[in-house]
Amino acid sequence: MSEGLIVSNLSVDFGAVNAVHELSFHIRPGELVALIGANGAGKSTLIRTLSGLITPSQGMASWNGVSLIGQRPEELARQGILHISEGRAVIPELTVSENLALGGIWRRDKKDVEIAREQTLTIFPVLASRLGQRADSLSGGERQMLAIGRALISRPKLLFLDEPSLGLAPLIIEEIFKTIDALRTQFGLTVLLVEQNAMSALRIADRGLILNLGVLVATGTPDELIADPQLRAAYLGI
Amino acid sequence: MRSRRFSPLVHGALLALIGAVLLFLSGFVDELRTYQGAQVAVYVIAISSIVLLTGYSGQISLGHGAIMAIGGYAAALSFVKWNFPFEIAILFGVIVGTISGFILGVAAARLSGPYLAGTTLALAVGLPTLADQFKILGGEQGLNFDIGDPPSWIAKIEGSSFTQYKWFFWITMILALFTLWAITNLLHSSFGRNWRASRNNPVAAGLAGINVARGKVFAFTVSSSLASLAGALFGLLLGLVTPSAFPLSLSFAIVTGAVLAGVGNIAGSVLGAVVLVALPELSGSLATHLGNSQKVSANLPGLAMSLLLIIVVLFLPNGLGSAQLVKKLRSKLKTT
Amino acid sequence: MFIDTLLIGLSSGAIYSLMALALVLVWRSTRVINFAQSGQAVLSTYIGYEITVRTHNYWISLPIAIIAGALLGSFIDLLFIRVLTKRVKSGPIAEIAPVIATLGLLGLIQSLIGLVWGDAFLQYPSPLSAKGFTFGSHTIPFSPQNAMIVLSSAAILAIFGIIFKYTNLGLALRAASFQPEIAQLAGVRVARVRNIGWAFAGSAGAVAGAVITPTSTLSPNSLDLLFVSGFIAAVIGGLDSLVGAVVGGVVLGVGFSFILQYIGSSVTFLMGFIILMIVLLVRPRGIFGSKAGRHA
User: Fold this and answer.
1) Gap between the Cα atoms of B148 and B166, Å rounded
2) Residue A214 in contact with residue A18, Cβ under 8 Å?
3) What is the number of domains present in chain B?
4) Which of A58, B97, B139, C5 is placed for a possible disulfide with C261 were both Cys, Cβ 3.0 to 4.6 Å?
């Protein structure tokens, strides 16, 4: 039962403000779980804590038995735990090719890095056509693909996606979510998907977690969550 | 920000009282201490110019020594060439300094952080060289600014022991106290609030209707008025103004003093000024104690000042007189 | 006459570029203006001096000075800068704290040098002649030592340019300086990479000190004005840009040289101030500076 992502009693405080309160949940390997909630619910804070950017005030989090707390973000990334942050996950001043390369420069197995890069360019052909361009010349959707592509080259096992749909047109959002679902299957990834766009996320998710003001208010399969009229009204926007 | 403890009137009365006490006490100390007291007073004015500019308006200047030079040279020039009485000469120095500050402030408002630091640094290095270029400024010899002996009416009241240094102390100390009073009022007014708001969050301030750029220029101008006053008084104390009286290290020294004071803290200016004057003296005597070698005596003051600066910046960001420090000390005393 | 002035300008411009480069390296990796740069450089130069004087070999002292500069830079980052950025994050002092702290460090280094070596002006011996090359009857004011200055500056710039553009380390350095958080999340050991940036900057400063000091004298303050020029050059070029550092240095060097020749020595720095003001008023970010680079 130490398999997967286990979060236990996690609390995060910023001075007097409590952003996350005694959160506990379990994500099994291979699951895609959607983390839903309004702005300020604590979703980003939770993700940033799990990826090592913030230190929690109490509680535990572990992946396959190894504790996440106390490790630096770059060490977690090197262990296959990748966090694609909200809105700014690419380095605008570097080219597409350089951004992708960043996912592999620390990896020892250079042959596999090449293979992963080829795979990425096959999955996202638009990147292949823009290799020499600076990342800030890409559209929002293309940047998201670049960020995911870079993460793939790092051979991730656990992926935190923070609001990938932010600022994107509905058609692109659909494409991105389809891609995430396909990648999850193809590479056997475990994914924690943070989204305000609850319905799109629940469509591809195995389970959902609903967060409000730092507290977990509901968990369940998408069907279970949608079936509840109160949850629907309050959090799912339908 | 603490709301002010005393109303302007009470504050003014308190300062006047402190002034009277200091004047009285100055009769009991020797010439050296009196002169140093005058130095402290001048540094108080100079440091408060930085506290205003950096602590409240958030602009860095590494070149306020140059602005002091402008004030000093303008005062001396009018004193020597046009025979202004020294009070008017000082006023003239302040006026010239204020106008220069306004011009610089307009440019400075467009720059931020390191770019402003670099520009003011270049000014500090470049300006004193003007003295060599224009003969009227006296070159390396500089200009005389010897205001002579105290006027006779003072000697009549105070008695014959009223020396020139005591006269200096009176002038500088009264001006320093007045500056403290005036600046405290300014900082507690809407100008001060606007400066702090603009410094903390310029975008929000702009949206709230504050003209951030105008505030910055105003802050730079007032700060330059203070610095040029300090510069004129500096020249008065020395009896002359030369390029070497306003080196780069002077600009660094007053910023240091402001940091020691706690950059947002006007009252701390006094503490900072005292440290600036006292530390070289203390480390000088320590150096003599340690054997009087040339190497030690020349470098120990600098070493001590640098160490103090580093410690204050790293561990006491609110300055030596800060509330933080007082709280820490109190709690330490309680547990023993 | 024109050629002579230009050559002198290029020679001093090369040095300004080195200093500017060191400042830009540190600025980009840590967002700190390292006012202690001239102190670090001069300390490395003193170490090189000791080696030269003891071994009577200038060429050995150069790499040793470089290594000393690199170690010193790395050391200062570890002990000093990390503490600084951790402790001082907000409040009225946050912006000027690094300025004051590095100024304090400068004073500390210079006082320590004075305590160990004294303040006397020393002569850094170099086998290269300081007399200008002669072509027939005309001696140009460009000596073998000047050639050394230009060549070593060009070499350092080329080496760093290659490292930054074509190596993984360079990519990591650039990524960490542009977006440290994203780089971290991608697996880049940002702290280690920044430390390397400081080491590079330290070595650049050491080279500058070691090649220019033989042309004048060595004292605790001998590189201070060079720092100011280097800073002006970096700001003119755009604090974020390595290329800008080079361009700024050359512009300033040639500019100073022509001012020196045709107007006179006393106003060079004042003209430097004016050049700086003009550049910044027209382009507040410097010639090659990026929009994001303006702020700390």
Assistant:
1) 12
2) yes
3) 1
4) C5
Domain carrying residue A18: 5-89+155-236
Backbone angles phi, psi at A91, to 5 degrees: -95, 110
Q: Is B290 inside any structural domain? A: no
Give kind and range of the element (H or E) at residue A51.
none
Q: What's at A164, amino acid-wise?
A: P
| Phi-psi category of residue B153: left, alpha or beta, with phi > 0 → left and psi -120 to 50 → alpha | alpha
What's the CATH fold of domain C2-131+141-294?
ABC transporter involved in vitamin B12 uptake, BtuC (1.10.3470)
Lowest mean per-residue pLDDT among A59-63, C68-72, C184-188, C211-215: C211-215
Q: Is position B265 within any domain?
A: no
Cβ atoms of A84 and C153 within 8 Å: the answer is no
pTM above 0.90, yes or no: no
Q: What is the pLDDT of residues C60-72, one digit of tens each?
A: 888 999 999 999 9
Q: Return the CATH number at A215.
A: 3.40.50.300
Helix (H/G/I), strand (E/B), else coil: C150: helix
Percent of chain B with pLDDT over 70: 87
Condensed to tens digits (0 to 9), the pLDDT of residues A54-64 reads 999 999 999 99
Nearest to C161 by CA among C144, C175, C174: C174
Residues of A numbered 77-96 whose beta carbons fall under 8 angstroms of chain C's beta carbons: which are they?
77-78, 82-85, 88-94
Looking at chain B, list the stretches that DSSP marks H as alpha helix, in order from N- to C-terminal side.
8-25, 31-50, 64-81, 86-108, 113-126, 130-133, 152-158, 164-188, 190-200, 202-207, 212-238, 248-261, 268-289, 294-315, 323-335
The structure tokens listed for C243 are 């290329």
Q: Which amino acid is it at A51?
A: S
In a domain, B255, yes or no: no
Whole-angstrom distance, CA of residue C41 vs CA of residue C218: 11
Domain residue limits at B41: 8-247
Tokens 């009277």 -> residue: B20
Touching pair A, B by Cβ (3+ pairs < 8 Å): no
Residues 150-189 of chain A whose Cβ lies under 8 A from any Cβ of chain C = 150-151, 154
Residue where the block lists tokens 């402790």: C87
Using a CB–CB cut-off of 8 Å, the residues of C that contact A are: 168, 171-172, 174-175, 178-179, 181-190, 290
Chains in contact with C, counting 3 or more C-beta pairs less than 8 Å apart as contact: A, B
Task: Give the angle C178-C183-C189 at the CA atoms, nearest 5°.
Answer: 115
Contact C111 B306 (CB under 8 A): yes
Q: Are A207 and A223 in contact (CB under 8 A)?
A: no
Chains with at least 3 CB pairs less than 8 angstroms from chain A: C
Select from C168, C175, C187 the Cβ nearest to the Cβ of A91. Answer: C175
B317 Cβ under 8 Å from any chain C Cβ: yes
Using the structure block, give the residue that is written with the tokens 């803290």. B265
Domain ranges of chain C: 2-131+141-294
A45 contact C CB<8A? no
* B130 and chain C in contact, CB less than 8 A: yes
Asked if B313 lies within 8 A of C101 by C-beta distance, the reply is: yes
Average pLDDT over residues C100-114: 88
Its sign, for the CA torsion B49, B43, B246, C238, is: negative
The residues near B68 (Cβ < 8 Å, ≥ 6 apart) are B46, B227, B228, B230, B231, B234, B246, B250
Question: Hey, which residues does A190 pair with through a beta bridge?
Answer: A158
Q: Residues 236-255, chain C: which have Cβ within 8 Å of B? A: 239
Residue A138 lies in a domain: no
Question: Is residue B306 in some structural domain?
Answer: no
- Overall number of domains in chain A: 1
